[in-house]
Fold these 4 entries.
Entry 1:
Amino acid sequence: CNEATDKLEEVNKVIADLRKQLAEAEEKAAKLNAEISKHKESIVTVRSKFSRQLGRLEKKEQSVKEHRADWEAEKQSLNKAKEAHEAAMAAHSEEMLSRDKLIEDITAEVKIARDFEEIISDKLNDS
């Protein structure tokens, strides 16, 4: 019987310690809940105070997104125009090179024709 009584006392002490720990934890939880409530109230106060500014900020953010999309579209359009211009410039350069080559060929042929004319003129004058 003494052994059971000793064990019961020991269990009761453990229960008392656990109740004390529970009370301490509940007190701590109550303090934390109070602190959380204060923080939530502060957040509501700040949001209320700055709601108009937040609204303007959100509108500006949306406007920036829209302008960014417009800018991207314009950038793509300009890049396409740039590529088309570069292609036209390359084609024009090729045409100029062909023209220069043609002028060189014609100049050479004209020189040959003059030389030939001079030779024939000399032969005709000699005879």
Entry 2:
Amino acid sequence: FDARYKRIDQDHSGMIEFDEFAHWIHSSDVQIAGNATMKMNFEELAHRYQEPLDLIMYLHSCFQDQLPDGCVDNYPDDPVGLPKQEAIFLAGILTPGFDQEEFAANFELVDDGSRQSGYCDFDEFVELLDFGELPAEIRNRYESMEN
């Protein structure tokens, strides 16, 4: 939640003003009601989080590497969930400064609407990541690829 709040609060005032809210609704294609079985594709995730597609693809490859041997994530058509402990471990690798307790609490919120309790699909994992905590070397590599 904090990561999303920071992205929405563009002037860093600690409050979300109407123009920030309206921008968030418009730019993020917020869905007031949706279908839990419909997954955003990689391009839609990149657009939603305003991140380079190559970075989203890199995160997906890391996600797949964390799955048990023999499991293949065919996201978005046939997603495979990552167990909670593995998701926490992967988040720690990708964002070394993350707060494990906060991540676990946010995982529980995401898990309530998940298709498989105790697991998160790739889009749910991305929802939990704080992109601002990604190391500069990763961010720079994928931002330079976009330009």
Entry 3:
Amino acid sequence: AGCQARAGLSVMSLMMRKLSTKTLMDLVLKATAANAHMNRDALVKDSLRPGMFFHSGEQQIQLLRDSNPVEALPEYHGPILFINGSKDHHDSDARWLAACPNANCELEIIEGADHFFTHDDRFMHHFIDRRPLL
């Protein structure tokens, strides 16, 4: 992971240890309310389904720290599409592309999107339109 991702995981870990489940969910909902295009229901379901806010957050963060998807990429020989928002961090983009095992690898930067673009109604068409290619 890039420097910014590692820093983000450290902040998330600290928040998981220091804040209550209710406070964490309130922060998620507040962030959702700040973006009128954010699909609140999808974000809440995606946060709750894996148990991120129910005492398993620290284990999930550790899994993210321990995993190294860049090392696993050479084992995959199908098409790869990396998608990143223009308002998100880009310190690992070149590393991801360099690790691709074949020429069928692409990075798409979605203009105006941030880290939570997958829950933003303005950008859903990027996934629907590209799905047949994946």
Entry 4:
Amino acid sequence: MATFAFKLVKGVVGSTLLAGGTFAGLCYYTIWNADRQVQRIDDDLADLSKALIRAEDGIKTHLETLARDEKQKESIAKKVEDVKTNLSKAEEQVTRLKGDLQDFSKKLDEKKQNIVAQKQQTGLLQRIREERAESVSVRSVSLSPRGYC
């Protein structure tokens, strides 16, 4: 009976050890699996942190680009305003020059009319002079001693 009891105790202890070993193995596997999952989560967090840093750098770059673009837009808007101002001044100058041209054209027409009038007066004076010269010559011929011969 002693051997049976010993065998029974041995079987119970062996079963217990086997069950305990299996349980311990199962516990170690569960801990190892959980540790692996935690490691994957840590790796994922590290990757996400790197991606977040890259995204923040990208946002910073885009904000700098946006600021440059805003400055360029303001500069272009100022240039457009300058061009509009210059165009307005040029239009005023064109209007003034058109008025000056019309005034000059009127003065030129008046001078042309004055020249025509002066030519007519000069022609009249030449005719009068020629008539007087002819009259003087007729008188001198008629008064000359030869004129009666």
